[in-house]
Amino acid sequence: MQNQPLTLLILNGKGAGNEELRTAVNKLRDEGFNLAVRVTWEKGDGDRYVQEAVSLQAETVVAGGGDGTINEIATALAALPADHRPALGILPLGTANDFATSVGIPLEMEPALRLAVLGKATAIDLARVNGDRYFINMATGGFGTRITTETPEKLKSALGGVSYFIHGLMRVDALKPDRCEIVAPGFDWQGDALVIGIGNGRQAGGGQKLCPDALINDGQLNLSIVTAQELLPTLLHSLTRDDENPNIVSAKLQSLSIRSPHEMTFNLDGEPLSGSEFQIEVLPGALSCRLPPQCPLLA
Ligand SMILES: Nc1ncnc2c1ncn2[C@@H]1O[C@H](COP(=O)(O)OP(=O)(O)OP(=O)(O)O)[C@@H](O)[C@H]1O
Predict the structure, then answer these.
(1) Among 45-49, 199-203, 249-253, 262-266, which stretch is predicted with the lowest mean pLDDT?
(2) Are 226 and 234 contacting, i.e. CB atoms less than 8 angstroms apart?
C-alpha cells in the first residue's frame, strides 16, 4: 500500500456530505489505493491543496466539484513546472458538470473515482486569457454568460441544468447584445453578438453545445458567435436545435483578441472575468488528464 502512488482528491466543500462518494473512497482504499482527501471552503483552497499535492509527490490530483472547481485545479496545475505537474482526474459533483459530461466521465461516484485514479493520462489543451486566467472547457460571453451567472442557486439545485434554459427564457426581455470586434490571424469579425462561445470543450450552461465540433487535444479553440440579427428566432434556434444555424459564425483558431467599446463579461468555465479587451490563446497539451478510453472529445 505504501508503494502505491498517491492520489489527492480535492473536494469542493459543497459536495463533502456525499455518502455515495464516502463509500467509493473507502472501497478504493480497501482495495489498496493510496487516496487522500482535502475539502475546500472558499476560493484559493484548491490552489493550496495542489501545492500540497506537489510536496507529497502525488501522481494525480482529482478535482471533485463542478466546472468551477475543475477550473481552479486546472489553473493551479498550469502554473507548475511540467515535470512536477500531477495528472488531473475529475469527479463530477457540480450542478451542470458540462466538461465532465461531455468528455464521458460517469456521474456515479465509484466508476468516476476509479477512472480519476486509474484512467489513462492524456495530454489535453488548456486556454489562457489575458496572460493569467485559464479555461479548460469554455469561455462564454454575451447573453449566455448572464444565463449562467444569474441563475439563482435554489433554482439551480432544484432543476439542475434545465434551470439555465428556463431562466434564460424568463429573461428574454433583458437581452442586450454585445458589440465587439474579434480578430485572429486570417479572421476578422465585428458586430453585435448575442452569445460568444470559445470552446476547448463543446458545451456550457448545462448542456448547450455551443462548439459542437471542438476537440480538447487538437491545439485549437473553436469560436462560435451567435449574431444578433434576428434576436428571438436566433436564441430559440440556438438553444433548441443542433443543425446548422445561419446566424452562427464559427472558426477554429489558435489565438484571438476580442475588443469591445463597453465592458463585457466572459465566463471562464463559469467564473466571470470583465473587461473591454481579451487576449485568448490555446496552450497545446498543457495538462495531462485521466479520461475514458472512448472520450469523444479526443482527436
Ligand atoms: N465549501 C464551499 N462552499 C461553497 N463554495 C465553495 C466551497 N469551496 C469552494 N467553493 C467555491 O465554489 C466555486 C466552484 O463551484 P463549482 O463550479 O465547482 O460548483 P457548481 O456551481 O455547483 O457547479 P457547476 O459549475 O457545474 O454548476 C469556486 O468559486 C470555489 O471557490
Answers:
(1) 262-266
(2) yes
Residues written for the chain: 299
Helix (H) or strand (E) holding 16: none
Q: How high is the pLDDT of residue 208? A: 82
Arithmetic mean of pLDDT, 141-164: 56
User: Cell numbers 447584445 label which residue?
Assistant: 177
Mean pLDDT of 166-176: 54
Nearest CA to ligand 1 atom 18: 66
Name all domains of the chain by residue range, CATH numbers in brackets: 6-118 (3.40.50.10330), 134-284 (2.60.200.40)
Confidence of residue 20 (pLDDT cuts 50, 70, 90): very high
Which residues in the chain belong to E strands, given as ranges?
A: 6-12, 34-40, 60-65, 87-92, 120-129, 133-135, 138-142, 178-184, 187-199, 221-227, 248-253, 255-268, 271-291
Q: What is the ipTM of this complex?
A: 0.93
State which of 9, 12, 45, 90 you would mutate to test the pocket of ligand 1, scoring each by most atoms of that ligand within 8 A of its C-beta: 12
